[in-house]
Design goal:
The chain has 369 residues and is mainly beta. It has two domains: 184 residues, Immunoglobulin-like, CATH 2.60.40; 159 residues, C8orf32 fold (Roll), CATH 3.10.620. It contains four helices and 17 strands.
Length: 369
């Protein structure tokens, strides 16, 4: 029997419910009233030892550029240490098990260093591997087991040090030089951020109409994005009532005129994408915000952050929590019917038995040390 278990990495609740990002920032920060191929990298037989890298390298799908003259800059930094991993005990015999857990990766504003890697098992375990999703934006710790007999246990963990910088807005003199890129000037890796995503129904005509209305009469492309930002903050009242489930989509949130950070973010992104502005979700522990993509008059592209739910932050952000993931539409061969807005951890494999009683007992953990 195939088992498919999904659990929240940071909050111990079901990914099916998407509830981990209903847990918002403290009250002081809350706001009042081209077609891609499916990823094929998670086949059990694809995890060979020679694919493993001992070092993180920056994603090809980069974060905010910080060296260009017209982009955001880096501010102060904070360093934290995290232990991420799992423990597994087989109730019945398990075969061809793959465990996948999201771990922080390098971005221009974030540096990740492996401090310790450990694995412990009473049966054959593959080495801990770190595999980046082909779309960028997501790095997984992957551990595979060919078999665990009933009663056998396994454990794997990484300890990582994360140094995260806040992001400062661009120089005001640069703002007139920034433009919404023509679609043919958007890098191929970023074109997925012009398409719809789970709970971000950006192809709906209502969002195209909203984009036209909100940006009417505005010449500056920077000011157009800021007008969308202000519209969402003024129209959608912050409410974290959906923290126990996956939340509403952008359309339903717009109708209700209330939502939590993931729902308000979905509305902002949907309007941006309807206006051909690349935008994506950035996920940190307990929160999410947005990056939108503009180019300067030399054709250099930059990702700029903004926080739709919380304290006002546009073009820069004081966020110091580790970036877990950038993006909001991930697919995997093992789960052909699934699209993930946020992917944190899963186990897949076969086990003996006719019902859920045969499923292995598992514990995922992510602890700040």
């Amino acid at each position: 029997m195939l088992f498919f278990l999904v659990f929240s990495l940071f909050f111990g609740v079901s990914q099916i419910g998407f509830s981990q990002f209903g847990l918002e920032r403290k009250a002081a920060e809350q706001k009042p009233a081209d077609e891609e191929e499916d990823s094929d990298q998670f086949d059990l037989d694809d995890y060979d030892a020679d694919e493993e890298s001992d070092d993180f390298s920056p994603s090809a799908d980069s974060g905010p550029k910080v060296k260009g003259q017209n982009g955001p800059k880096l501010g102060k930094s904070a360093t934290t240490t995290w232990e991420t991993g799992f423990r597994l005990r087989a109730v019945a015999r398990c075969r061809d098990i793959v465990s996948m857990i999201t771990i922080p990766m390098d971005w221009p504003e974030q540096k990740v260093t492996i401090m310790e890697e450990r694995e412990k098992t009473s049966s054959n375990v593959g080495r801990i591997q770190r595999v980046e999703h082909k779309n960028g934006g997501l790095l997984l710790m992957v551990v595979k087991f060919r078999e665990l007999a009933a009663g056998q246990t396994a454990e794997a963990a990484l300890v990582v040090k994360v140094t995260r910088h806040e992001i400062l807005p661009p120089d005001p003199k640069s703002i007139p030089k920034l433009f919404i890129p023509p679609t043919n000037k958007v890098p191929r890796a970023y074109r997925i951020y012009l398409e719809k995503s789970p709970n971000i129904e950006s192809t709906n005509a209502q969002f195209k109409k909203l984009y036209t209305e909100v940006t009417k009469g505005i010449d500056s492309d920077w000011a157009k994005v800021e007008a969308i930002y202000n519209y969402v903050r003024d129209t959608i009242q912050y409410n974290d009532a959906n923290k126990a489930n996956k939340g509403n989509g952008a359309l339903e949130t717009l109708k209700l005129k209330q939502g939590d950070c993931k729902e308000m973010t979905a509305v902002f992104i949907a309007i941006c994408r309807a206006g051909k502005i690349p935008a994506r979700t950035v996920w940190v522990p307990g929160h999410c915000y947005v990056e939108f993509y503009l180019i300067d008059d030399d054709g250099v592209g930059y990702w700029f952050p903004c926080q739709v739910a919380g304290t006002y932050a546009f073009g820069g952000i004081p966020e110091m929590g580790p970036v877990l993931q950038k993006g909001d539409n991930f697919t995997f061969k093992e789960f052909p019917k699934e699209q993930f807005r946020f992917f944190d951890k899963q186990i897949v494999g076969d086990y003996d038995g006719e019902d859920e009683a045969g499923q292995p007992k598992r514990e995922f953990f992510n602890n700040q040390l």
